[in-house]
Specification:
Structural class: mainly beta
Radius of gyration: 23 Å
Number of helices: 3
Largest sheet: 8 strands, antiparallel, barrel
Strand content: over 45%
Mean pLDDT: 87
Number of domains: 2
Helix content: under 10%
CATH topology of the largest domain: Porin
CATH class of the largest domain: Mainly Beta
Low-confidence stretches: 6-17
CATH architecture of the largest domain: Beta Barrel
Distance between the termini: 62 Å
Shape: flat
Number of strands: 16
Length: 356
């Protein structure tokens, strides 16, 4: 009897707790991007992804929700079939996402969905049992997810999504091998909203905060493995200085410089070349430009860099950074960055910065 009462109470109160919520299912189909000769033998077919979403509609309680036009925040569970069950297997991912609708009041709205999370791989590299898998060296990977799309309201409570974009898997070179994997996919799906179209948004004016240019400095640290060194870990540290120009409350343009010190370079130069002469050659420096998206206290930086000092040319002359950081205080931020060279992960950085 007590169990029946609890079940009945949960059933009757579900509409109250689900007033801003919904469920979604999406199917993805496409190709593995062939960005490395090392992984061509792993491409056996066309990958598929199956996404299950819990959706939460933002109604403007916080100012950032109004700035981003009352978006959805989603928790997605995604099952990925790489179309190579023997070598690559499957991935199970959990990804928090943000879906922005550009014309929310229209029956047809362009949208942008982005998120980052953690993925568990069923098949990873093993020198005896799975030597062909040079893509995944560890069970857990970071997964990055970004899609442009269209959302169509087909009924009061039903929305259809179609889109095109990319999903990236990498462990940040924490454990070799790690070529990374990029999926270029189409998606289509259906969402059911418990609240229909009657949910009222808070549309009062947003307080105007003066936008000021500011400087920032960051300390970044990491470790990475080298297969040629018996998978030994090498320490990397870098310092970044930036000048930041806010365009709107949504984010700011950032430009600056990076100074890297990579101890893996010394090993490579000594063992693969005869050009190592001094510790100065461990340094690299570059100039950067990019944009930082702001979602309340969460910031998502995307940066592009060019090396102006690269004594050991074992990487491309350009590099990229993407990540997430959190504003702990007004001036202090901390987070994680993924540094890459044309989509190939170099390493995962732990970063802390101060703005002034």
């Amino acid at each position: 009897m007590n169990f029946f009462r609890i079940w009945l109470l949960c059933f009757l109160t579900l509409p109250v707790f689900a007033q801003k919520q919904g469920l979604g299912f999406h199917y993805y189909h496409g190709n593995i991007f062939r960005d490395s000769r090392q992984m061509v033998h792993l491409i056996k077919g066309f990958p598929n992804m199956y996404e299950f979403q819990w959706k939460y509609k933002r109604t403007g309680i916080s100012s950032w929700e109004r700035v981003y036009n009352f978006p959805f925040t989603d928790i997605a569970v995604i099952i990925t079939d790489f179309a190579n069950k023997n070598d690559l297997g499957y991935a199970i991912s959990i990804i928090p996402q943000l879906q922005i609708l550009f014309y929310e009041k229209s029956f047809l709205s362009p949208s942008f969905t982005a998120g980052t999370g953690v993925s568990y791989l069923t098949k990873i590299f093993h020198p005896v049992e799975n030597p062909l898998n040079v893509t995944f060296g560890s069970r857990f990977n970071i997964v990055l997810h970004g899609y442009l799309g269209l959302q169509l309201r087909i009924k009061k409570n039903f929305l259809m999504d179609v889109g095109y974009g990319i999903t990236h898997f990498s462990n940040g070179n924490i454990k070799e091998p790690n070529t990374g994997l990029n999926l270029i996919l189409w998606k289509a799906g259906l969402n059911y909203l418990f609240f229909g179209k009657t949910l009222k948004n808070i549309s009062d004016t947003i307080a105007i905060v003066p936008l000021k240019n500011f400087y920032s400095i960051r300390l970044n640290q990491s470790f990475k493995q080298l297969p040629s060194a018996g998978n030994k870990f090498f320490y990397i540290v870098s310092v970044s200085g930036n000048y930041n120009y806010p365009l709107t409350n949504l984010g700011y343009i950032t430009t600056g410089f990076d100074l890297f010190m990579d101890y893996a370079v010394k090993y490579l130069m000594i063992n693969e070349t005869t050009t190592y002469k001094s510790s100065v050659q461990l340094f690299r420096s570059g100039i950067t430009a990019g944009y930082v998206f702001k979602i309340n206290r969460v910031e998502i930086p995307v940066q592009f860099g060019y090396y102006i000092y690269l004594p050991f040319k074992n990487v491309t002359s350009t590099y990229q950074r993407a990540g997430v950081q959190y504003a702990v205080t007004k001036n202090f931020t901390a987070g994680l960055y993924l540094k890459t060279h044309y989509g190939h992960a170099d390493y995962l950085e732990w970063t802390a910065g101060w703005g002034f």
